[in-house]
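hey can u check if this looks right to u? its 420 residues, i copy pasted from the old doc so theres a chance i mangled smth
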Amino acid sequence: MRDIVFTRRSGWIPNVIREAGELKLMLGAGADANHEPRTFTFSIGEAHLAVIREDLARHLLLWSAVLPLCDAAGTRGRLDENAAVALLDPILLSAPADVDAFFQRIRWDRGRLIAHGADIDLLERGQVCAAMGAATETSNGKRAQEYHANRRRAERGAVLGPLDAAILKYTGQYLHGATVPKRMPDAVEPTLLPKVMRVLATAEQACAGMRIGRDPRRGKRATDKRDWDRMATAVDAAVRRAHPELVDDAVRTVSFLMCSEAVDRSRSTPMEDDEEAAGDRADSGGSARKTSLSFTDDKGVEKKWIQDDPRTATAEFWEFVGDRSAADNEVFTIEDEEMGEGIQLHFYADSSARVTTVREGEGGSDPEYRVEYSLVDGMSGYRNLVSAFVRGGCASLEQHGSWMSDNAEFERARRRRDAK
């Protein structure tokens, strides 16, 4: 039977229980293989209980020293109870100077103490007892997160000024650089907000009119990495030129914000509108616009499109690619059977082939085809190629590549490009 002898308002601070007549410290820490919290216990004495009851600072110090032992137990290992018991007297019953010296020799969870109000400067100087003079039972996890974030930045030599910090807080990346940035003006001090907005205005002007298109080669929600890099480079250069005092972290978070917002706009745009934007850059092809097409992938799956379909041919094709593209499925074909022509896209090699029928098969003979190859410049090149073919067939592709009928010549050109 287990009875609770002493507990504090915060449920995470270790409790003292009595189990089978024996006093024990009980705490939750870590998680098991099923991600459920683990509970650890180890024996304590009446003298230890008395200090835990009366001295919050010592209680928290003990907790911070036990947590690394819990981490060492992993998802199913046992707590090293001997090591845990060995912490009791030095932390709970020793003089402050001896406690400070003891903490120089052991592992302990600094963030736990900071979350409960520890003075960071005193902790850094090794004065752990004095640092806990203003300790609180309630926890402020954000305070510990800010400490760890600043420490990580210091380790790589990044020192934030007030405006740098304000920009990171505005985007929500002050604590976690991997967090997708967003706009949070309320997180910034009112006196600094106008300066932050001037930096953002510089970034917005730098990428005005730029877009990040989707990249169905990598799935239905993927976006074009080249477009992202192009926008990030433009924003980065403009912000650094206009605000040279900003550190790299602040500049990067502004670029990340602009690109993330562009991606959100792209993903919320219907495929037809997205393809229309790409089609505006392609040759119209005049009266040769396609009325019936067949789409196939490298696995033999086929999809038909006719002019009466409610969606455009390019939208349907890229939807087909987004659904079917995979690491082992990177060759897609668009064919106009009536005209005897088509294009084949080789996503694995950033290349394409256009195929036209030279002679129809007669009397059981195979038809004769002319196959020409061309290199493709990323997703934007593929978009233009597909749009041009849909609008004007193979005849409209002349300006969308350097077409080579000699396969060996094409392979040499591809190797030269890849070697750059």
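Residues 279-287 have pLDDT under 50 and may be disordered.
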